[in-house]
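Minutes, project check-in
Item: structure for the 180-residue chain
Input as provided by the requester:
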Amino acid sequence: IVNRILAILTTPHGLLALLFLLASGVYFFVAPSRSAISIEVPNDQRGTNSVEISQDIRLVVVDNFGLPRRYVVELEVSPKLGKRIEQVMTKLRIEMLASGGWPEELGVPKVYLQEIDNQLVAILDFSFIDRVSVDVTREINLYQAIAETVLSNGVNRILLLKNGRPAETFLGHLSVPNKP
């Protein structure tokens, strides 16, 4: 019987079966158990400590040519995700104001979080006093920077409001998501 097993193991199929058994055995003993895996869902619950913490945040700054530049920046932020997203937006505005990518008259939006269809949605409410005048390219670049920055900091989707109402367009040209 031993000779028969050795004869089978010398064939390509036998070697493949042996490698498969060895790999599955290693995986079984080395891989973490399911109980050791934990998933942390960001939340904005009341009662969390409001002391700001130093954290790496992600910024996506889109230049005048439409090229996104991704940065990781250490920033003192709130542990509350909604407030943290507002602080990240403030940092993004400062970065893009320097390059002319963010209009001076456009402020940082208020951020509200809501879970919709098991996805964390950031609702960005921009307050406008006057119409913000930008060309189409600049509007697309600004929206891309805002969307990619927010989505890379713990949110699954974004919706836009203007003065608390659903926005059909971002700044007059670009259609944007405004309903769940």
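Outcome recorded: The first helix runs from residue 2 to 9.
No further action items on this chain.
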